[in-house]
Amino acid sequence: MAGELVSPTPALRGSARRTAALRLLRRRLIQAVPLMLGVVVINFCLIQMAPGSFLELMTAENQVSDPATVALLRKTYGLEDPVWMQLLKYIWALLHFDFGFSYRQNMPVIQAIWIHLPATVLLMVSSIALAVTVGVAAGVVASMKVRTFWDSLVSVGAMFFYAAPSFWLGIMLIVLFSVKLGWLPVGGMMKIGGSGGVLDILHHLILPTLALGLFYAAIYTRVMRSSMLEVAQADFVRTARAKGLSRNKVTINHVLRNALLPVVTILGVQMGTVLAGSVVIESVFSWPGVGSLLFDSVSSRNYPVVLGIMVLGSLVVIAANIAVDLIYMWLDPRIEIR
Amino acid sequence: MQRFEFLGRFSRNRGALVGACLILVVALMAVFASIFFPTDPLRIVGMPELWPGEDPEFPLGTDSLGRDILSMIVHGARATLLIGLFASAVATLIGVSVGAAAGYFGGWVDEIGMRVAELFQTIPNLIFVLTIVVILGSTLTNIVIAIGIVSWTPIARMTRAEFLSLRDREFVQACRSMGMSDFRIIVSEILPNALPPVIVLSSLVVAGAILFESAVSFLGLGDPNVASWGRLVGDGRQLIRSSWYICAIPGIAIMITVLCLNLVGDGLNDALNPKLRDR
């Protein structure tokens, strides 16, 4: 009994934290609803703004001439209804994950996206991992050796990769590592006719990851460097030094942990741009992901797929932002997120 | 006097000075493109696939059809810079309007403005641009507007923050007590004071817009009548085994321009916001 009175047990603190996290999660999910609704309405407006009837374009592009199919489509899309009714029907359909039917792939849109999703997720995860590792490491090095040769080298490198268009960087990497040196494959996800072993996929993953990830590595480097320098001046760092801790220990335990917060924020904000960037990179490397599907659908004016990818992409961004808020809470328990 | 102070602070940042000079060169290239290279850049003028330096008449070589790459780069500068500037202008116009209204009026105007900004930040930017361009058509105007629509949110947030800190200052209260209209207070009193950080952001948006446009053109969705640098990279892509320079050169042009714009943005930041210097 006495033990309980003396110190609040860690379990209690942990459960309080968990409740706070759950409350935050609930609030964020409620906030996400109008946001998603907005995305859907923008989508719908775009369809309405398309020159000519949506149906005409779709049937023309997909060479559907059978009158029965056209009538069916007309009914599916409810084109005789007033606009507000069409919007409601559209929202209703999306709520059931019904994004329409893609004639090009001859399957529902959601299924077409689902098939291509793993490749994109793999590329995004590996690129973000590269960007965070390289960016944080380079930023820490630059901040510890501030105003030296190493600092300048890191800054110049970051400036270079921040300005280089990712698709161009990808092509140049192909020229160097595939065409000239012959070390890495030009594109694709696995050897033609290969079974797709882990090593084979990793081999194909290197160049796209570099092309997509280095741009973000440059951003994180700059953020990490300035954030490290800022935190290093905080009072608690001086206290830690005054306690007699070594410089490296202070840097790792006190400065680094706090300096990571802005990087985490940016990571969440940029999830959408990483996804968008993968569209271009997948096109350069013939990577069979959602980006390739989007590019293919864009060229063939396959609207349902394009719009479906836009809605799902927005969903991913919202989810990523919620995840970032939770990570934030874990990294810095002092922060109360509204 | 103030202007000299500004120039002095700007030129103290060596990177910004170099960047500004190079941007000036690119801009002059764009303006005088038809004087340097009076013939159509898309005309076939020599042997195909001449490497840079192989023929002194074509210092940057020729592409697969025998068109002069230097001429295409110089003419492409015009399209690339114009798209960047106009897209940034569109983004600044939307961003400043929304941000000013949200920051000045507060309340539900602020709430709606910021929710809309959040909405536009949620949709993956390039995917949104591609969707707009595909549905509404690949014209220069549509591309510029699409890039503007995905780039205005940071400007709106910045403008809002400035307006929030300025709207209750004495000089604004004085104007209000004189009976000045809200519109006039916003435009002629608060806006000039809020502009410096907005200008910095706008210059960075130009760089971002150039990257967006190059990606759109690279994917083959640019305006077919415009040979921007991104399109040149896309065109050269088929020949990377034999003549990779066709791809490399326009990419370097994009990179240098974007790099310089970023440097100028940093320099403007130092010069316009002295408080933030040495960060």
In words, what does this structure look like?
The complex is a heterodimer of chains A (338) and B (279). Chain A is mainly alpha-helical. Chain A has 14 helices and 2 strands. In chain A, helix 11 packs antiparallel against helix 14. The longest helix of chain A has 40 residues. Chain A is globular, with a radius of gyration of 25 Å. Chain B is mostly helical and 279 residues long. Chain B has 12 helices and no strands. At the A-B interface, helix 2, helix 7, helix 8, helix 9 and helix 12 of A face helix 5, helix 6, helix 10 and helix 12 of B.
Q: β content of chain A, as a range?
A: under 5%
The major β-sheet of chain B equals:
none
According to DSSP, the number of beta strands of chain B is 0
Helix amount of chain A, in percent?
A: over 70%
What form of chain B results from the Cα inertia axes?
elongated
Low-pLDDT stretches of chain A are 1-12
Number of helices of chain A: 14
* Strand line-up across the major sheet of chain A: 1-2
Q: Structural class of chain A, please? A: mainly alpha
The biggest sheet of chain A, with number of strands, parallel, antiparallel or mixed sense and barrel status, is: 2 strands, antiparallel
Question: How does the overall form of chain A come out from the CA principal axes?
Answer: globular
**Order of SSEs of chain B, N→C?**
HHHHHHHHHHHH
Radius of gyration of chain A: 25 Å
User: CA-to-CA gap between the ends of chain A?
Assistant: 37 Å
Name the average pLDDT of chain B. 85
Number of helices of chain B: 12
Distance between the termini of chain B: 26 Å
